[in-house]
C-alpha cells in the first residue's frame, strides 16, 4: 500500500509539473501516434450490440465509408434501446487517446431525447465477451461526446460512469454524469477530444487542445456497503452507437506504458505532448 501511494503521488506530482513546465528537464523525443482506425475498414474492432451476440454487427450499425468510421441507422425501423459499442482489440493502461468526431443527420426513430447528438468514448472498460446479451453499456469510464442543440450551452467531453465512480479533490463522486467546462459545438463541425489516462491515478480530458476536466482514481462501483470500489488500472476502449449518426475520421493513441514505472520520464513525455495544441481542422 505504501509503495502504491508513493508511486501515485509521484505520478500526480509529475503531471502537475508537466502543465506548469520545468526548464531543468531535457526535451524528450517526439512520441508517435498509433492509428487505431486505419481509414479503410473495421480491422481490429468488434461490435457488441444490445440483445445481440458479440461480434454481430446488427443492421450494419458500424461501417466505414469514404474513409470515415460511422455508426448509422438507415436499416433500423426504430431504435428499441439497442445501444451498441465497437471495441478495439487491445486493452490499455497508460496512454493519450484522441478521437476526431462529428454528428450528422437526424436521430433514428425511437432514440431517447438525452441521446440526441450523443456518443461516447468508453475507456477502462470491461471485456465485451463478458457482457450479458441484454447489457446496455459496458462497465467503464465514459468521455461523453455531445453536440449542441442550437439553443443554449451543451458541453462535450463530459464524464459518465456506467458501473464505475471516481474521486476528485479527495472526494468520491458517485453521480452518473459530470459536465466538463468545454464550450458548445453546434452543427456538424469536427471536434477533437483527447484523454490522458494514467492507470488508476489521473485522467485529464481535453477538447481542441484545451483542458476541460481532470479527476483521480477511476474505480468500480463499490460492493458490500463499501464507499470505495476497486481501482481501474486498465481496460478496453470502445465507441458508442446511442441512436444519433456519428462520424469518426481519426482514432489514435500514444501508449505510455513503457514510462509507467518512471514518473520523471513520464513527466517529460507528457510535457512534450501537451505543449502542442491539437485542434480539429474543419
TrEMBL record:
InterPro entries referenced in this protein's UniProt entry, alphabetically: AL/BT2_dom
Signal among keywords: yes
Domain 3-keto-alpha-glucoside-1,2-lyase/3-keto-2-hydroxy-glucal hydratase: from-to ranges: 32-253
Signal sequence residues:
1-28
Query: Which domain of life, per UniProt?
Result: Bacteria
Q: Which UniProt keywords apply?
A: Signal
Q: Kindly provide the name given to this protein in its UniProt entry.
A: DUF1080 domain-containing protein
Q: What is the lineage of its organism?
A: Bacteria, Pseudomonadati, Bacteroidota, Sphingobacteriia, Sphingobacteriales
Amino acid at each position: 500500500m505504501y509503495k502504491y501511494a508513493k508511486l501515485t503521488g509521484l505520478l500526480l506530482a509529475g503531471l502537475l509539473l508537466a502543465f506548469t513546465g520545468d526548464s531543468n528537464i531535457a526535451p524528450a523525443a517526439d512520441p508517435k501516434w498509433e492509428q487505431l482506425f486505419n481509414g479503410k475498414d473495421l480491422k481490429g474492432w468488434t461490435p457488441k450490440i444490445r440483445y445481440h451476440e458479440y461480434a454481430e454487427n446488427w443492421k450494419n450499425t458500424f461501417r466505414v465509408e469514404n474513409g470515415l468510421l460511422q455508426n448509422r441507422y438507415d436499416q433500423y425501423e426504430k431504435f428499441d434501446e439497442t445501444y451498441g459499442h465497437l471495441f478495439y482489440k487491445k486493452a490499455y493502461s497508460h496512454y493519450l487517446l484522441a478521437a476526431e468526431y462529428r454528428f450528422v443527420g437526424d436521430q433514428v426513430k425511437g432514440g431517447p431525447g438525452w441521446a440526441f447528438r450523443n456518443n461516447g468514448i468508453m475507456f477502462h472498460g470491461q471485456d465485451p465477451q463478458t457482457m450479458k446479451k441484454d447489457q446496455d453499456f459496458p462497465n467503464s469510464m465514459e468521455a461523453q461526446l455531445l453536440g449542441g442543440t442550437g439553443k443554449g450551452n451543451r458541453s462535450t467531453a463530459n464524464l459518465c460512469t456506467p458501473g464505475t465512480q471516481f474521486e476528485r479533490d479527495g472526494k468520491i463522486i458517485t453521480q452518473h454524469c459530470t459536465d466538463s467546462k468545454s464550450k458548445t459545438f453546434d452543427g456538424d463541425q469536427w471536434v477533437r477530444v483527447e484523454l490522458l489516462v494514467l492507470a488508476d491515478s489521473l485522467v485529464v480530458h481535453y477538447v481542441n487542445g484545451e483542458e476541460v476536466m481532470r479527476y483521480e482514481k477511476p474505480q468500480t462501483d463499490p460492493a458490500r456497503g463499501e464507499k470505495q470500489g476497486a481501482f481501474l488500472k486498465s481496460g478496453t476502449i470502445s465507441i458508442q452507437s446511442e441512436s444519433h449518426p456519428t462520424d469518426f475520421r481519426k482514432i489514435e493513441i500514444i501508449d505510455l506504458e513503457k514510462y509507467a514505472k518512471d514518473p520523471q520520464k513520464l513527466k517529460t513525455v507528457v510535457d512534450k505532448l501537451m505543449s502542442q495544441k491539437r485542434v480539429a481542422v474543419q
